[in-house]
Amino acid sequence: MSSQPRSVEGGPAHGRRFLTAWLVLSLILSPLVAIYLGPAIPPGNGSVEATGQVFDNEVLVTFATPICIFVVLFLLYAVFSFRSRTVEIVDGPPVRGDSRIQIAWMVVTTVAVLALAAFGSYELLVDGAGGGQGPNAAFLPAGHSQAMDVQVIGQQWEFTYRYPTLGGLETPHLMLPANTLIRLHVTSLDAIHSFWAYQLGVKADANPGTDNIVYVTTKGPRSFDIHCAELCGLWHGYMFDTGQVVEQSAFTAWAKQQQTYFAPVAKYLPAYSTTYLPDPQRRAG
Amino acid sequence: MSTTVVETHRPIWRRLIGFNLLTGIVFGVVGYYIGWFIGHHITGASVAYFSGIDQNDISVTLGYLLGVGGFLIGLGFGVYPWARIRGYPPSLREKETQGASRYFGLCTDHKVVGIQYMIGIGLFFFIGGLNAMLIRVELLRPASQVFPAGQYLTLVGMHGTMMMGIMTSAILGPFANYFVPLMIGARRMAFPRIESLTFWLLMAAGAILTTTIFFGGFPTGWTGYEPLNSQANTGMDSYLVFFALVGISMCLLGLNMLATIITMRAPGLTWSRLPIFCWGVVSTAILNLLAAPVLIAVLGMAVFDRTVQTTFFNPQGGGSPYLYQNLFWVFGHPEVYILALPGMGIVLEILPVFARKPLWGYRLAVSGLLGVTLLSWLVWQHHLFVSGINSDLRPFYMLSTELISIPTGFTFLCGLMTLWRGQIRFSVPLLFSLAWFFNFLIGGLSGVFLSDVPSDVTTHGSFFSMAHFHYTIMGGLVFAFFAAIYFWAPKMFGYTLNERLGKIHFWVMFISFNSTFAPLFAIGFLGQPRRTVTYAQHLQFLNDWVSISAFILGGSMLIFLYNFVYSLLFARIRAPQNPWSSVSLEWQLPTPVPLHNFDRIPVITGEPYGYGSPGIAAIPAAGPAGGSA
Question: Where are the beta strands (DSSP E) in B357-447?
Answer without folding.
Answer: none
